[in-house]
Amino acid sequence: MNDMTPTREQREAALEGMGCKRKRVEDIRFTQGKGQYVDDLKLPGMVFGDFVRSPYAHAKITRIDASEALKLPGVIAVLTAEDLKGVNLAWMPTLAGDVQMVLADGKVLYQNQEVAFVVAENRYIADDAIQLVEVEYEELPVLTDPFKSMDADAPVLRPDLDGKMEGAHGPRKHHNHIFTWEVGDREETDKAFSEADVTIKELISYHRTHPSPLETCQCVASMDKIKGELTVWGTFQAPHVIRTVASLLSTIPEQKIHVIAPDIGGGFGNKVGAYPGYICAIVASIVTGVPVKWVEDRMENLSTTSFARDYHMTAEIAAKNDGTVTGLKVHVLADHGGFDACADPSKWPAGFFNIVTGSYDFPAAHLEVDGVYTNKAPGGVAYRCSFRVTEAAYCIERAMDILAQKLDMDPADLRMKNFVKAEQFPYHSALGWEYDSGDYHTAMQKAMDTIGYRELRAEQKAKQEAFKRGETREIMGIGVSFFTEIVGAGPSKNCDILGVAMFDSAEIRVHPTGSVISRMGTKSQGQGHETTWAQIIATEIGIPAADIMVEEGNTDTAPYGLGTYGSRSTPVAGAAIALASRKIRNKAQMIAAHMLEVSEYDLEWDVDGFQVKGNPQARKSMKEIAWAAYHAPPPGMEPGLEAVSYYDPPNMTYPFGAYLCVMDIDVDTGVAKTRRFYALDDCGTRINPMIIEGQVHGGLTEAFAIAMGQEIRYDEMGNVLGASFMDFFLPTAVETPHWETDFTVTPSPHHPIGAKGVGESPNVGGVPAFSNAVNDAFKFLGSTHIQMPHDAWRIWQAAKELGAHG
Amino acid sequence: MIPGAFTYHRPSSVAEAVAILVSHGDEARPLSGGHSLIPMMKLRMAAPEHLVDLGGIADLKGITDDGDTITIRAMTTQHELIASDLLAQKLPIIRETSLLIADPQIRYVGTLGGNVANGDPGNDMPALMQCLDAAYVLTGPEGDREVPARDFYEAAYFTTLAPDEILTAVRIPVPPAGHGYAYEKLKRKVGDYATAAAAVVLTLDGGTVSFCSIALTNVADTPLYAQEAGEILTGSTLDAETVARAVAAAEEITEPASDGRGPAEYRTKMAGVMLQRALARAATRAAS
Predict the structure, then answer these.
(1) Which of A138, A189, A267, A736 could cross-link with A364 by S-S, CB 3.0 to 4.6 Å?
(2) A651-692 tens-digit pLDDT
(3) Do B190 and B214 lie in a common domain?
(4) Residue A181 belongs to a domain
C-alpha cells in the first residue's frame, strides 16, 4: 500500500455515515433565506382566499349576505356551506372518525370558526371583503368546561349527532359525549387497591396549548380543468395521506392529484390533519379555474387549527409501604372541542395513552378515557409527542412524585425501586404494550451522579430551613422525570390512518457515476432528513453522504408513506432506508463477484466496497460497481442499481430518558429560574449526534414553554384569550434555560439499525421535569399538587395559598 | 391581519404635518415608530384614513442640554436614548428603562414621542416621565403648549392631545447630581409589557430621604404618579416600616386589569414588590 491509499478510517470518515456529526445540508439554504415555502409560491393568475370567522363560540347562523362583498372590485367569489353542499363538501371526515364542518352549516361551535371563504385578486382585497360579508348570529349557551359537558342540562353542541348513541369508538352516553375507551383489567386493579398499604389519588390536568410552528398552515390549490388534474402545494406533514383524502373527498382519481409539500417551517403535529382552508382553496380553484392560495395568520393558527392536550387525568396508585407499586388506575376527561379532530391512528381514540404505566413495573392497571365536546376549537394533535404520550408521561411522573411524598421517600429512589429491570425486556406492560429494550437503572444512576443529586437534596434542605427562619425568600425545587416513549407508529396489525396501514417507505437509485437520488414517504419539517437519511445510506452502501440526494414531499415521485410525526420517521422510514440499501448492497455483491471473477460468497463488505476474503487487495468500490451495473452487468442480471422498500414495523420502539431540573423560585413574585437542566436520552443507535442534540434542545424549549405558561385560554363566553405571541408564551433565547445533554445507547432489537427516534422525547420528558421541580419546591410547605401551567402569577398564587407570604 | 386602505403622507415639517391633521380631523393619525398603531390597524381596531408619517421631519430628532432641563425631540428612538452620553450622565434612569423596552430591533424604530403620546398604559416611558416630572410639548395650529406628564393621561389611549396636535418634544428637569434611581419591571418575557413596574428617583441627605418621586407602569388604565408614597418616604431613612407604608399607599392607587399577566390582585402586589425593590436599588445608588 503506498502513502496515497486512504486508510480504512479515512474511507470511513469520507462517508460521513451513521454516528457522524455531519452538518445539516438543508441549512445552506435555510440560513440564507433561500428555503422555498408555500407562501413563496407565485403562480400566474393566482388569487387569494381568506375566511369570514365567527366572533361567537356557540351560535345559530340565521343569515349570510355576501352581496356587498361581491360588489367590491377584485372580489371573485364568496363560498358558504350552501355552496359546498353542491359538491358534498360542507362537512369532511376527521381522522378520529367524527365529521367536521368545512364552513359553518347553520351554526358555529367555537370562536373563529370558518363561516365563509372570500376569494379575491389579492389578500388585501380579500380582507376588505371579509368586513363586508354580513352574518347574522343568534347566540346559544356556551359550554367551555369539559367537566360540565355531560351535565343533564348541558347545551346540545352537535345536533347532527342527535340520537346517534353509537360513535366511531363505541357507545355514547350523553349528547356531548364522544367515546369511552377502556384498557386494562379493572378487577385485578381494584383488587390491588383493596390490598394496598398506601394509595394516592390526584386530578392532574394538562392544559390546552398549541404546537405553534413559525410557519402557519397554508396551501395553494391549482385545478387544471383541461387535464382534470389537481395540484396542491401545502404545509403537509403527511402529503400522501392528504392526496388519498383529497381523492376520496373530491372523487378526482388519485393519479390526477399531485400533492407537494415544499420546505416546511416547523410542524409539531399542527400540519398532520386536513383543515377547512385546504378544502376551500381546492373547491375555489375548481370553481374559478385559477390557482388559489390560502395562508393562515398567527391568530388563526393559534385559535383554530389543532390545539394540543386539554386532558384532565385522575390518577390513583396503589403501593406497599416499602414503595413497591401494585396498581395504577387512571380516568381521563378529554376535551376535544367542537369536533373530534384528533390526529391519532384511527383505532386509537386516546392515542397511545395506555403507555401511562410509564417506566414502572405495575402488575395491574386500568385506564378509562371519556372524550367530550365543548365550544372550543377542534384538534387534540400530538404536539411534538407520539399520540397522547406526553399527557401519559406527565400523568405518571407527577403521580409517582405524589406517591413518593406520601411515603416520605425520595422521588428518585421510588423510581429506582419500581423501574422495569433490564432483564425484563421485552417487557409486557399491564396496559398491553411490549417494550422492546431498556436499561432504566443505568440511565437514572448516570443522571443522578452527573448532576450531584444527593448534594442538591442537601442544599435544598438547608434552603428550606433558611426560608423557615426568614433568611431568604427563595425556595428550591428538584424535578425528577423518567419517561418511556412509545414511537414509530406503527405495525399494521394495530395502526392505520383511515384504513391505510402505517408503514413507510424508501426508494434509492444509484446512478452510473456512483451518486444517489433517494426518496422517502416521510416529510421533514426541520428534522434534518436530507442530512440523516443520507448518512444511513452512506453507511449501508458505502457511498459518501455528500453524493446522496434526499428528496421528500412530492407524491408524484416519492414512494407512498404515512409522513413525519409521532417520532415515526427513523423507526419506520429509517428502517425502510436501511432495508432498501441492503437490497442494493446485495445486488452490488453479485456484480462485484462477476467483476472479480469469484463467487459472491467469497466476498466480504468493507466500508465502501467488496473485497475478496483473505485478499483485501482484490476489491471493487461501490463507485466501480455502480458503473458496472449500467455498463456491464453480469449475464442474465437486469442492469441498474436501485431498490424500493416498504417497511411494516414489527413493533413500536421505546426510547427513554432521565431528566433532572433544578429550579429556584422567588416566592414574592412567583418567578421561577431554571438553574440547571440535565437531559439524558436513550434513543438507541444515534445516527447524527449533533442533530439529536439539536432536537433535544428544541423539544426541551417547547417543554419549558408548555410547563411554565404556554396556554390557550378561554373565558366563560368561549372567547379565546391570548391567541397571539404577545400572550402565548413562545420563549426567546433570553428566557430559555441552558441545556445539558447526555445519553446512553440501548439499541432497539427489532429495528434494522437499532434506532428508536428522538424528536419528541424532550417534550415528553421535559414537561414533567419542570412541573415536578415547581411542585417539589413547594412540597415542604404542605403542597401535594399544583396544576400547570406554572406561570409566575400561578406560582405566586400557590405560594400565597400555602401561607408563604407571611 | 391586513389594515384597511389609507392614504400615506410624509411631511417634511411639523407645520406641514399639523396642516394635514387639521384638514382631515379625526380621520388622520400621526405615525411615529408604529409599534402600537400598526398592529391596531392590522387588527382593524384602528382604521385611520390618513396616516401622517413623522419620520421625514428633521426637527423632531435630537437631544439637547438646556441646563436645568433636557429636551428630547419626539422622534428620538429608544436606541438613541440608550446611546446618549448626555442622558447616561444626567438621566441614567432613561437608559435603564429603555433597555427594558421590548428588544433591540424594536428599539431601533420605537420613539420616545410615540411611546408617551399613544396613551397605552403598558408603555414604560409615561410612568417614567411622571416620575421625572417631565412636560410634553404639544404643537397644534395655534402653536406650542406644554402639559405636565402627570396631567396628560386620561384613560387608556385617551390623553389631552387634540386630534390636530402633535407631541413634538419632552422636557425633563435634570435631577440633582448624586440622585438614586431605579426602574424595576416584572415581565413574562422579552418584548412583553410589564406585569407591573415602578420608577423611583430619590435623593439622600445623610441617610435621610430628602426627595422621592415614584410612578407605576401598567397597573391602571393610565400610568400612575404615586405622590403619597413619595411623600411618606420623604424624611424617612427608608426603614422597613415606612417602606411598607409607602408600598401600601402605592398599591392602594392601582387598579390593574386581570389578563394573561395575572389577576388584578397579583398585579397590585407586584407593583408593591417592584416599588420595594426599586427603592432598595435607588438607595444604594444615591450619594448620601
Answers:
(1) A189
(2) 999 999 999 999 999 999 999 999 999 999 999 999 999 999
(3) yes
(4) no
Q: Do the chains contact at A123 and B2, CB–CB below 8 Å?
A: yes
A126: phi then psi, degrees, rounded to nearest 5: -60, -45
Q: What is the pLDDT of residues A159-173, one digit of tens each?
A: 999 889 999 999 999
**Roughly how many angstroms between the first and final C-alpha of chain A, as a whole number?**
81
What would the DSSP string read from start to end of B159-211?
A: ES--TT-EEEEEEEEPPPTT-EEEEEEE-SSTTPPPSEEEEEEEEEETTEEEE
Which chain B residue has the Cα nearest residue A126?
Answer: B2
Question: Cβ separation of A732 and B189 shorter than 8 Å?
Answer: yes
Answer yes or no: A219 catalytic: no
Question: Is A122 in the same domain as A227?
Answer: yes
- Is the minimum CB–CB distance between A299 and chain B shorter than 8 Å? yes
Shortest CA gap B71–chain A (Å): 32
- Indicate the pairing of strand B143-148 with strand A218-224: unpaired
CA–CA dist A644, A388 (Å, integer): 32
Residue A383's CATH number: 3.30.365.10
| Nearest C-alpha in A relative to B270 | A669
B134 and B226 together in one domain? no
Domain count, chain A: 3
Interchain proximity A735–B189, CB inside 8 Å: yes
- Say whether A128 and B273 touch across the interface (CB within 8 A): no
Q: How far is CA A309 from CA A384, A566, A704, in A?
A: 11, 14, 15
On whether both A427 and A539 belong to a single domain, the answer is: no
**A760 is annotated as an active-site residue:** yes
A242: containing domain:
38-140+216-264+271-304
Task: Reply yes or no on whether A423 is catalytic.
Answer: no
Residues B125 and B169 grouped into a single domain: yes
Residue A317 lies in a domain: yes
**Distance between B271 CA and the closest CA of chain A, angstroms:** 10
Contacts of A131 in chain B (CB under 8 A): 4, 44
Residue B94 lies in a domain: yes
Rounded to two decimals, the ipTM of the complex is: 0.96
